[in-house]
Here is the input.
Amino acid sequence: DTEVTQTPKHLVMGMTNKKSLKCEQHMGHRAMYWYKQKAKKPPELMFVYSYEKLSINESVPSRFSPECPNSSLLNLHLHALQPEDSALYLCASSQLRGIDYTGELFFGEGSRLTVL
Amino acid sequence: DAKTTQPPSMDCAEGRAANLPCNHSTISGNEYVYWYRQIHSQGPQYIIHGLKNNETNEMASLIITEDRKSSTLILPHATLRDTAVYYCIVIQGAQKLVFGQGTRLTINP
Here is the structure.
């Protein structure tokens, strides 16, 4: 199984809503990532988890709250978002060699978020 | 700051080899060159990576110059399904995978 599964594929939410994006992998990868991608732009790194602990936060606003409940799951909790947060949110996973990330990331298909 | 420079767009005829260049003149000795592609509305897909030697897999070949300051990704027999944005990324160990602007490759019938 070399898949990273993201749900939901599409999400529409209001600025006062609370919602979550979910990501799952069963490849035994111990690094998991959230990227944000706006239209016609490259993916931008948001968060990295290593061994279920947050290792990188790219100064992401607190209205985005990541969670890694176990080695297979990664969540992104959303609260009080703004319309400019509308984007494709991509989850990825990779192996770790000690503390080093390997550069071969497996990406999911993404969750397309629209904030009204 | 981006460590790589790629042309913004390229065209290639179906069935021909597509050669995508990447400049990485500031690459350090322990940094790898990775290539990804992103087909429209899909997540990025790993293609290939290398350190010094040329590499080949079922998807593509990677040619790295002897001074390691540039590389070329070769898709030997391009098909319409190879139309995508191709990203060249330089990374080492604990560094973050940061995407540059990439090259938008269009395969024409």
Observations:
- DSSP finds no helices and 13 strands in chain A.
- The first strand of chain A starts at residue 4 and ends at 7.
- The radius of gyration of chain A is 13 Å.
- Chain A touches chain B at residues 4, 33, 42-45, 48, 56, 90, 92, 99-101, 103-110 (CB under 8 Å).
